[in-house]
Design goal:
Strand order of the largest sheet of chain B: 6-7-8-3-9-10
Bound molecules: adenosine-5'-triphosphate, magnesium ion
Number of strands of chain A: 2
Largest interface: A-B, 37 and 60 residues
Oligomer: heterodimer
Number of helices of chain B: 20
CATH architecture of the largest domain in chain A: Orthogonal Bundle
Helix content of chain B: 25-40%
Distance between the termini of chain A: 32 Å
Strand content of chain A: under 5%
CATH topology of the largest domain in chain A: ABC transporter involved in vitamin B12 uptake, BtuC
Number of helices of chain A: 16
CATH class of the largest domain in chain A: Mainly Alpha
Radius of gyration of chain B: 23 Å
Strand content of chain B: 15-25%
Structural class of chain B: alpha/beta
Largest sheet of chain A: 2 strands, antiparallel
Distance between the termini of chain B: 60 Å
């Protein structure tokens, strides 16, 4: 009987999975080499200076945390557009607890306030079955109001504080390895192709590196491991893919969804802590500046996967950092980078036989190249738009097969199995 | 194991006075069933008789309105599947309960991670079971890429993997070919010998008689008879179920014309990774002809149909409908040109489950009357009237056409789809498992509808795991094996077992068969 059935030959799935990690590494390395190339061609040394990279890292991590929060919640099937609000709560928590009780309390407070916001979202969407977007938007509005109100109540009378900002906050412990960062700095100054650029990277990781950033980075690996390698993660993802099937196997769908949303809020809160304690010197009203939404965009860009979402956040972070480093010159050099990137995308799309995207990529690539060639600097207005335009183009034209969790955003009612 | 001697005499399940009402329907009333430990108990009954509902109640998915449930002699209240699982009950649902974007392994281990983890141990175990029953499943494949037969195997593997003591199988064999059914039954008997209790629902009465120890018949929501397989024939069982005779499909005089309606030439299809899925497919169907495609699920049937309806793009080959080359046409154009399509998985591709029946009537017919008026406006009245016609003509048991598709029993959903696809006078019908899950009475009706349309010149591409259906309806049978058409058979002279071995490539039948091919 064992020979009775003829099925197609099994595919080598584990190899595919391994190759995904490899591909991620390749993209990252390839992108970096192109960046170095552009730096050498344009002479815009700020493109890969350790200063730029350091700012990039601090700009990236809050977005990445929001994105990671979105990942957790959407993998369990709950769209969390309330990330922005939870992040606001995080900045507020960091401001209050950080100022009064120190760094650790600030971080914990930020996470807890984020979780509180998420609790509201979980209650509304999972327990009461309210539309996810409606609840999320409501949370954003509430959080904005609450933060403004509480900031005024808490910080107005403090020295160095005001109705819209907290006094300077203590910063988390910073890692400095002078023995490495010193020589790296020297090497960076030589402006050698690739070598100096790599030295900048080394310097970024050895000079004034915030421990909170390291912690946040580690969370990516933790997430990857928990969601794809543990039973808890499998159950959580099953709730986002096929809650009815999960329930038919005895899984308490509500519980996993709620946990996922709470974790999501905690991560967004942590993103808020990063904003007010690492990226800047204290809490300010409106500090998040839509980073919660950008995190969501990065998550979609990253196809609901940690590695991709990190790349997306880094892209945002980098293009946000660049305007601050000799903006008009650097962003001008960025034009060439974008042109090259688009051409590369065009080639890949051509190989995949996606003609429309390929043509689009080439067309925009040529446009950007022309723009680069006929101008010397970029108007200041454009430098602030750069992050969004770049990302939009890359997102639209690199379009891979985006695959969101099948039951993402759908309200699930207990007893719908069968 | 120690309990097996004592348990053998005990009752695994006792249901007394179970009742369940849905808006407009009494799905179950006064149901009394006793199921003995260590037996295979079959549950039969016409579409909508309440079998699935009863099993969902037993599995904790739905709560009964009245009655008591006893498991192993204890009164229980099952409010979630988790409760039922804790009592050692496992269930294969009539409609698949799988997560598309998870792998086979993940789908199987989900909820049962304690047994072998979710890593290599589980993989080894799954491969072992899969090999033992000839399932040929790859644990790391995404469920998304599986056809109905493979999905069904995954579902069965799910319960086998868990080793539940009481296993409910709601129509597990509807899309399996006879060899797979045999393998499954051998396994069920083995489980029974180990002291497991099995509840088995099927519309294939020969199967029921072959495997069951006890049979309970349901009609209109309640149990009407309990019989032993030795005491009844399939015909008598059918009469108990539907009060009508067991039909035997037979081709009457041939209606095949010499007008070629569908002509396929050199069709090649590859998957995303470039592996061939269909190779050099070529055939013709004439007006008034039914071409049956035999084959074990996963050998390219689904791919063939999806390519012909335009859901997938072949890398080479031409498709002609009548005089016209339709290779480059979209699905919508193909359908508008008169191709009907009964998909293999009614819930995935055939229905909007949460839309009322009359809206489902419009699905796939959104370019033409009676559902849509010129200019693209919906003709609600037309759609409703025509839905009423389908419900009447195809005997769809439903409180009305405003009922959502989800609320219909599986067989009634199927009947509605068949009715819809047969409306608007299609010139070509592509039917994958057209009578899947349909009771014997309704099956005969559907066959009659198809035959009648054939007399008027309908060409049919028929894919079915039911070899009797295939042989009974088809004018020609071709065998699809590993993406190639390997043999041609004359249904008048082929036996199911010959066909069966050709389908698996197990004998030389494929070679001798392809000899007839011009
Ligand atoms: N969720 C629901 N809402 C409303 N009505 C329902 C629902 N589920 C089932 N029903 C109704 O209950 C009756 C019994 O359905 P059930 O699915 O149990 O039939 P069945 O015996 O399994 O039929 P089949 O052989 O076609 O699968 C049907 O009339 C059906 O319309
Ligand atoms: Mg049923």
């Amino acid at each position: 009987m064992s020979t009775a059935v003829t099925a197609p030959p099994p595919v080598e799935a584990p190899a595919e999975r391994r190759s995904r990690g490899l591909r991620f590494g390749l993209y990252l390395a390839g992108g970096f080499v192109v960046l170095c190339l552009v730096r050498v061609i344009t002479g815009a040394d700020e493109l890969t200076s350790s200063g730029t990279l350091a700012v990039t890292l601090t700009a990236t991590m809050p977005i990445a945390m929001a994105g990671l929060g979105g990942l957790w919640s959407e993998r369990a099937g709950v769209v969390n557009i309330g990330l922005e609000g939870m992040m606001i709560m995080g900045t507020l928590g960091a401001g209050y607890f950080g100022f009064h009780y120190g760094v650790i309390a600030g971080i914990v407070g930020a996470v807890l306030l984020g979780v509180a916001g998420a609790g509201l979202h979980a209650l509304a969407t999972v327990v009461f079955g309210i539309d996810h977007i409606v609840s999320g938007v409501a949370i954003n509005i509430i959080a904005l109001g609450v933060s403004g109100f509480l900031a005024e109540a808490w910080f107005s009378d403090l020295e160095g504080g005001g109705p819209t900002q907290s006094p300077p906050l203590p910063t988390p412990f910073e890692i400095n390895i002078d023995a490495i960062s010193g020589p790296a700095n020297t090497l960076e100054g030589k402006h050698w192709f690739l070598i100096s650029d790599l030295a900048s990277v080394v310097e970024m990781f050895t000079k004034n590196l915030s421990s909170l950033v390291v912690f946040a980075l580690a969370l990516f690996f933790v997430t990857q491991w928990v969601l794809w390698r543990t039973r808890f993660g499998l159950r959580l993802r099953s709730c986002g893919e096929a809650p009815a099937a999960a329930e038919s196997l005895g899984i308490n769908v509500y519980r996993y969804k709620i946990i996922a949303v709470l974790i999501s809020g905690g991560l967004a809160g942590l993103g808020g802590a990063l904003l007010s304690m690492v990226s800047s010197s204290g809490f300010q009203v409106g500090q998040t500046n839509n980073r919660g939404y950008i995190g969501l965009a990065a998550m979609i860009f990253g196809n609901w996967r940690p590695s991709g979402l990190f790349m997306g956040s880094a892209l945002f972070g980098y293009t946000q950092a660049l305007p601050f480093r000799q903006g008009t010159v650097s962003v001008h050099a960025l034009l060439l980078l974008v042109a090259l990137l688009l051409v590369a995308i065009g080639v890949v799309q051509l190989l995949r036989k996606r003609r429309v995207q390929a043509i689009g990529a080439f067309a925009f690539g040529v446009l950007f190249l022309l723009w680069y060639l006929v101008t010397d600097i970029v108007p200041r207005d454009f430098t602030t738009m750069a992050p969004y335009i770049t990302t939009l183009l890359v997102l639209a034209l690199a379009s891979q097969r985006l695959r969101m969790p099948a039951a993402d955003g759908q309200v699930y009612r207990k007893g719908s199995a069968g | 194991m120690t309990t097996s001697t004592t348990a053998r005499t005990a009752e695994a399940i006792e249901l007394t006075g179970i009742g369940k009402r849905f808006p407009g329907v009494v799905a179950n009333h006064d149901v009394d069933i006793t199921i003995h430990t260590g037996t295979i108990h079959a549950l039969v009954g016409e579409n909508g008789a309440g079998k699935s509902t009863l099993m969902k109640i037993l599995y904790g998915v739905q709560r009964p309105d009245d009655g008591t449930i006893r498991v192993d002699g204890q009164d229980v209240s099952l409010s979630t599947p988790a409760d039922a699982i804790a009592r050692g009950i496992g269930m294969v649902f009539q409609h698949f309960m799988l997560a598309d974007n998870l792998t086979v392994l993940e789908n199987i281990t989900l909820g049962a991670e304690k047994l072998h983890g979710i890593g290599d141990d589980a993989r080894t175990e799954i491969l072992a079971i899969s090999r033992r029953y000839g399932f040929g499943l790859d644990p790391d494949e995404l469920v998304e890429s599986l056809g109905v037969g493979e999905r069904q195997r995954v579902e069965i593997l799910k319960v086998l993997y868990r080793g539940a003591r009481i296993i409910i199988l709601d129509e597990p064999t509807a899309v399996l070919v006879p060899q797979e059914v045999d393998a499954l039954f051998a396994n069920l008997r083995e489980l029974k010998d180990q002291g497991h209790t099995l509840i088995f629902i099927s519309h294939k009465l020969d199967e029921v008689l072959a495997v069951a120890d006890d049979i309970t018949v349901m009609r209109r929501g309640t149990t009407v008879a309990s019989v032993k397989p030795g005491d009844v024939t399939a015909r008598q069982l059918a009469e108990l179920m539907v009060g009508s005779e067991l039909p035997s499909p037979s081709t009457e005089e041939s209606t095949v014309t010499d007008r070629v309606l569908l002509e396929v030439e050199g069709l090649e299809l590859r998957d995303a990774a470039g592996r061939p899925e269909l190779t050099d497919i070529g055939f013709e169907i004439h007006a008034g002809e039914i071409l049956g495609i035999a084959g074990v699920e996963g050998n390219g049937q689904a791919e063939l149909v999806e390519t012909l309806i335009g859901m997938r793009q072949p890398v080479a080959g031409t498709v002609r409908l009548g005089e016209r080359d339709i290779s480059g046409w979209s699905t919508r154009e193909r359908r508008a040109a008169g191709i009907g399509y009964i998909p293999e998985d009614r819930q995935r591709h055939g229905l909007l489950l949460d839309a009322p029946l009359w809206e489902n009537r419009i699905l796939g017919h959104q370019t033409r009357p009676p559902a849509v008026k010129a200019g693209g406006w919906l003709d609600v009245g037309g759609a409703r009237t025509d839905s009423e016609r389908i419900v009447g003509q195809y005997d769809v048991r439903t409180p009305g056409i405003d009922t959502t598709a989800r609320a219909l029993s599986g067989g009634n959903q199927q009947k509605f789809i068949v009715g819809r696809e047969m409306s608007g006078d299609p010139i070509l019908l592509m039917a994958s498992h057209p009578t899947r899950g349909v009771d014997v009475g309704a099956q005969a009706q559907i066959w009659d509808h198809i035959k009648q349309a054939r007399r008027q010149g309908l060409a049919v591409l028929l894919i079915s795991a039911d070899l009797d259906e295939l042989i009974g309806l088809s004018d020609t049978i071709r065998v699809l094996l590993r993406g190639r058409l390997v043999g041609t058979f004359d249904p008048q002279h082929v036996t199911p077992s010959e066909l069966g071995s050709a389908m698996t490539g197990a004998d030389s039948g494929a070679d001798s068969g392809s000899g007839d091919d011009a």
